[in-house]
């Protein structure tokens, strides 16, 4: 089978050694496995709460990132609490849907999907609704590629002693986050985005004291974050069957992240990828949806060119050449998205730009090169 490069927000292109790490079976009670589980948990805490291995804890759960979001919201917001969900894209909206489905008391602060959530707007919403005990916000809105100002937003919740839940799915591992310095209590991510593992594992780094206080209170049996923490703490075992191969791959991926030079080095590679991509596609006449100052290094949304452009044909022809891109996720504009994360380097981005240029020419799409 021909190797495909995935320019997508996950699953994404992984390295041969990460995939090779899955090449053997291991029992879930085997000391080899439970030791790896504890090593992975400690490494995750160290990435986002360095120097605080006891105050913060990492919980692993089977499933994609949404499972950990649902486990977090369903476990940590009490019945007499109130969650303010900040929405400026599809992933904020997903957290709102989770709160609604789980009947978690909640309010919503909606901001246009091409704008960042401003700290003043969050402060005003909290002033207007003093019953709010928890805030949930998305760090990088993968819908558009927009980066919300996490530090400024966390300063607002911190000043009010509000518990902060952050969907850091597409930023964890690539953008520096210090939970303790910022005042983040629950940071939710998954194995298959900037950590460059394979899909199948979701994870939460949490304020240990807060999460332990929620024992026996989750709204779900299997997505009980506090119970999973208790099991993992006890002996490194999941409550139910763990995705053993996925954990082995994540352990390898975390070692590779370290070898690359850590979060800053990885973030710098993604930022280079994104710049090469945006500059290359802008030069051939495509337009980004977001201005550069709101753009993350993770994924970029481009406006679709005029007819005869057709996304399905564009996608298919790129796929044939070994490049996988992503459709847009906006209701307000016709767009497509290109990720710059995973095992991708400048040369891959340049190759994609060249392939897109050739496919657009073949399709007879007239662009104004800049
Ligand atoms: C990928 C992603 C998720 C989780 O999506 P899954 O399909 O469940 O993995 C949640 N939030 C953001 C911002 C994401 O990028």
Provide a short characterization of the protein structure.
This protein is 42% helix and 16% strand. It has 370 residues and is α/β, with parallel strands linked by helices. Strands 2-10-9-8-5-3-4 form a 7-stranded mixed sheet, with helices on both faces. A 4-stranded antiparallel sheet has the order 11-12-15-14, with helices on one face. Strands 1-13 form a two-stranded parallel sheet.
Task: Give an overview in words.
The chain has about 375 residues and is α/β, with parallel strands linked by helices. It has two domains: about 110 residues, Aspartate Aminotransferase, domain 1 (Alpha-Beta Complex); about 240 residues, 3-Layer(aba) Sandwich (Aspartate Aminotransferase, domain 2). About 40% of the residues lie in helices and about 15% in strands. The protein contains 13 helices and 15 strands. It has a seven-stranded mixed β-sheet, with helices on both faces. A hairpin with a 4-residue loop joins strand 6 and strand 7. Helix 2 packs across helix 10. The radius of gyration is 21 Å and the shape is globular. The two termini are about 35 Å apart. The mean pLDDT is about 95. Bound molecules: pyridoxal-5'-phosphate. The site of pyridoxal-5'-phosphate has 12 residues, from helix 3.
């Amino acid at each position: 089978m021909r190797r495909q490069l995935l320019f997508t927000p996950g699953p994404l292109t992984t390295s041969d050694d990460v995939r090779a790490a899955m090449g053997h079976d291991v029992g879930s009670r085997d000391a080899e496995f439970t030791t790896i589980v504890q090593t992975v948990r400690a490494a995750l805490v160290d990435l986002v709460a360095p120097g605080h291995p006891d105050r913060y804890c990492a919980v692993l759960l089977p499933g994609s990132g949404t499972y950990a979001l649902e486990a977090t919201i369903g476990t940590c917001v009490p019945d007499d609490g109130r969650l303010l969900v900040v929405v400026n894209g599809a992933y904020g909206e997903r957290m709102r849907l989770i709160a609604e489905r789980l009947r978690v008391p909640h309010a919503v602060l909606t901001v246009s999907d091409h704008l960042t959530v401003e700290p003043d707007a969050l402060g005003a919403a909290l002033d207007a609704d003093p019953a709010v005990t928890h805030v949930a916000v998305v760090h990088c809105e993968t819908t558009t590629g927009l980066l919300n100002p996490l530090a400024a937003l966390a300063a607002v919740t911190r000043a009010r002693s509000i518990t902060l839940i952050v969907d850091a799915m597409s930023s964890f591992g690539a953008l520096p986050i210090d939970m303790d310095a910022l005042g983040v209590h629950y940071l939710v991510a998954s194995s298959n985005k900037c950590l460059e593992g394979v899909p199948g594992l979701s994870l939460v780094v949490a304020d240990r004291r807060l999460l332990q206080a929620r024992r026996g209170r989750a709204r779900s049996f299997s997505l009980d974050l506090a119970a999973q923490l208790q099991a993992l703490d006890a002996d490194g075992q999941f409550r139910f069957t763990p995705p053993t191969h996925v954990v082995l791959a994540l352990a390898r991926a975390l070692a590779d992240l370290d070898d690359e030079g850590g979060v800053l080095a990885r973030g710098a590679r993604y930022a280079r990828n994104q710049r090469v991509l945006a500059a290359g596609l802008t030069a051939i006449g495509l337009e980004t949806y977001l201005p550069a100052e709101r753009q993350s290094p993770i994924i970029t949304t481009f406006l679709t060119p005029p007819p005869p452009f057709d996304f399905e044909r564009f996608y298919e022809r790129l796929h044939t050449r070994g490049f996988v891109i992503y459709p847009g996720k906006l209701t307000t504009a016709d767009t497509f998205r290109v990720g710059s994360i995973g095992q991708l380097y400048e040369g891959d981005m340049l190759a994609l730009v060249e392939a897109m240029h050739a496919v657009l020419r073949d399709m007879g799409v007239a662009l104004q090169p800049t």
